[in-house]
Write a structure and sequence with these properties.
59% of the residues lie in helices and 3% in strands. By secondary structure, it is mainly alpha-helical.
Length: 696
């Protein structure tokens, strides 16, 4: 028996076969094709498996042979190799009056009690593959020998390197006929489901595991990507469409292939050219968008794709396209790509939300599913802003909350089973904005969030952590605080801290402690305006408030220079000398921050997008602002993002109200950090600062 996965090279024929034999073989292949399409089972798999397992004769194997479905007559398998036709086999030998074996599941026991023909048809009507067949054989107790399991598993493998190389060699667009057949063969080799038809250049028994191996082997071949680029750029739509189909099969469920394709020289440019609505046909555009939809599901390439100006132009046009299918694909691409922070910046610079998604989101002609996808994408892009196209679409915000509730209850909404993590991420973005926060609380977002919070024993850690971050943002809404207090969120968080057994859940537990603090002790700290002692003032006690997710190296450089100048600076990473003397015992980070803020005469706030979106930074800024209004401290603002300043359109909400007309220091350029530290040191040592009454 030849090993499965090997096949003769294209063009090779068995000289022993006569014309009559070839005619009989073609007839058998047609019969096999009809049988496979009708009954959805593949006799070649059973033939090869039986041939391997027939070498072992044991009682368990005989039981397998007795219970396995067999066709009523033998025929040539469509995947059989020349000279290895499947031998005729007798029909089912299941007696209709015999009792079923003990180890069969209930549905199989019912089939056993039917007549032989009924059992054969009911079993054959199921979709079967090598993966399913071998798992069925190896997972039961009927296989009495481990070598049988090994033999069955050995069939689940990819095609040989010779076959893959032979297919790649036929991909040249110079020979259109061979190129089209080779592209179809690549789809056959890489598809995740049982493919239709047969291979042109060689023969291979399809398996799901083998298709996965084929994708990996083909993706490692740089020559394949070079030839595929030529197929895309040949200018022939008849070649470009199947080339996109082959690429779609190559990159599905394979992040390595996606990265390899995008990294291949000229491949991204060739793919973007296929999106041009002025030059490409509708069919080419659709298939190209399908490939991009698969690609943007991989985190590593989202920012690379969205960094292309031409891609963003085509994306904007596609979202406003009159052809619904193109519009739907483009909206899906935006929704998947907008989960990446760098891609978000590029999409916002291109005004995708304002100029493209708003048209879909507010349209009454599009399906609610498409409108909801556009709304989720807007939540990722502009959900943190106080005034945006999303904050004005109350209906769609209500739909997002309803989709979250349906996702938590494992039911469909608008005909789609929405992923829970995606909907939570969208709601989290909206919970940052005070205007959107008002709406999602009004539409009942706390109900599913509280249900998820109570189910920490059964929930995934990532989903639970996202839920707690959203609840922490909602603590800054008075009605939400009342509802969370009424429903006992503090007790739920205490139970979570005491009972959870998650490994590496320190970050999630810290958020839970912060929620308890904000709901129980934060008000006490707001009301305690402690006077600053002369000793504290002479030591120049400074609190640095910043987000660790925004140019932290610039922050550390300024803090280092301030400490070198003799100032006592407190940070989350390293407390000040004064606070070390006051607090010898460790305490929660958020309480340590609040006490350090009480003893600080000067606060340096490093403003960034990440700072505005962090509930911890907002709490720090809130404490500092309260003390500044009470004439207890001065605040100095250092800007870390050139495109995000209190005076720009990107910034709004609580940060703009807090900054007011205070002087701002530029900190996004590394060569100016020394000057920033010198100015802050001078203000601290001279006792000068801009307090609240000076702003008025």
């Amino acid at each position: 028996l030849e090993p499965v996965g090997t096949s003769p090279l294209p063009g090779s024929q068995d000289p022993a076969l006569t014309e009559e034999d070839e005619a009989a073989e073609r007839k058998s292949e047609r019969r096999a094709r009809i049988s496979a399409r009708t009954f959805r089972w593949f006799p070649a798999e059973e033939d090869e498996l039986r041939n391997l397992l027939s070498m072992q004769s044991s009682r368990g194997m005989q039981q397998v042979g007795a219970n396995a479905k067999t066709p009523s007559r033998g025929f040539m398998s469509p995947w059989s190799f020349p000279g290895h036709a499947s031998p005729p086999r007798p029909g089912p030998s299941l007696p209709s009056t015999s009792s079923p074996p003990k180890n069969l599941p209930p549905n199989r026991r019912r089939q056993f009690m039917k007549s032989p023909s009924e059992a054969s048809l009911s079993t054959g009507s199921r979709r079967r593959s090598y993966g399913g067949a071998t798992e069925k054989l190896s997972s039961g107790t009927m296989l009495a020998n481990t070598s049988l399991i090994t033999a069955a598993k050995s069939l689940r493998r990819g095609a040989s390197e010779e076959l893959l190389s032979a297919v790649v060699m036929k991909l040249s667009p110079d020979n259109k006929s061979d190129c089209l057949h080779a592209l179809a063969d690549i789809e056959f080799l890489c598809t995740t489901r049982y493919p239709k038809g047969f291979m042109k250049f060689g023969k291979w028994v399809w398996t799901a595991r083998g298709a996965e191996d084929n994708r990996k082997s083909l993706g490692d071949d740089q020559k394949l990507w070079d030839i595929m680029r030529q197929c895309l750029k040949c200018g022939d739509a008849d070649v470009a469409v199947p080339a996109c189909g082959a690429l779609e099969k190559l990159v599905v469920k394979s992040s390595c292939n996606v990265v390899a394709m995008i990294a291949s020289p000229g491949m991204l440019v060739a793919m973007v050219d296929l999106l041009d609505s002025d030059k490409q046909s509708f069919k080419v555009q659709i298939h190209a968008w399908r490939v991009f939809l698969k690609c943007v599901s991989v985190e590593d390439v989202k920012d690379v794709i969205c960094n292309s100006t031409r891609f963003l132009e085509h994306l904007r046009k596609a979202c406003m396209c009159s052809m619904e299918e193109v519009r739907v694909k483009a909206v899906n691409v935006v929704m998947n790509a907008s989960t990446n922070s760098n891609a978000q910046c590029n999409l916002n610079k291109a005004c995708i939300a304002e100029q493209a998604l708003s048209t879909v989101m507010l349209s009454s002609e599009d399906l609610m599913e498409t409108r909801l996808r556009a709304s989720v994408a807007c939540a990722f892009l502009v959900g943190t802003q106080e005034t945006s196209v999303l904050s004005q679409a109350h209906e769609m915000i209500q739909e997002i909350v309803a989709a979250l509730q349906a996702s938590w209850e494992s039911r469909d909404h608008t005909g789609v089973r929405w992923p829970l993590d995606t909907m939570l991420a969208a709601v989290y973005k909206m919970s940052v904005s005070d205007s959107n926060k008002e709406l999602i609380v009004k539409f009942g977002v706390l109900e599913p969030l509280m249900e998820i919070a109570r189910s920490f024993e059964n929930e995934v850690e990532d989903v639970y952590g996202q839920t707690l971050l959203t609840l922490a943002n909602l603590v800054f809404h008075d009605d939400a605080v009342q509802q969370m207090t009424k429903e006992g969120l503090v007790g739920v968080m205490e139970d979570f801290l005491n009972e959870t057994q998650w490994a590496d859940a320190d970050a999630t537990k810290e958020v839970a402690r912060d929620i308890i603090f904000m709901l129980t002790k934060a008000l006490d700290f707001e009301m305690r305006f402690l006077p600053v002692s002369p000793a504290t003032k002479s030591r120049g006690h400074v609190v640095a408030s910043y987000s660790p997710d925004a140019k932290v190296e610039h922050v550390r450089e300024v803090i280092k220079q301030l400490r070198d100048k003799g100032l006592d600076v407190w940070t989350n990473e390293k407390p000040s000398g004064l606070m070390k003397q006051r607090n010898a015992s460790p305490r929660p980070a958020i309480e340590a921050m609040a006490e350090a803020m009480e003893m600080a005469q000067y606060v340096v706030v490093f403003v960034s997008r990440a700072y505005v979106e962090s509930y911890k930074c907002r709490l720090e800024g809130k404490f500092a602002h309260i003390r500044e209004r009470a004439s207890k401290s001065n605040i100095y603002y250092v800007l870390l993002d050139e495109d995000f300043t209190p005076n720009s359109d990107a910034a709004d909400g609580w940060m703009v109200m807090m900054v007011g007309d205070a002087p701002l220091y530029q900190g996004w350029e590394s060569d100016k950090l020394g000057g920033v530290a010198d100015q802050i040191d001078e203000l601290v040592r001279t006792g000068m600062g801009v307090c609240w009454w000076d702003k008025e």
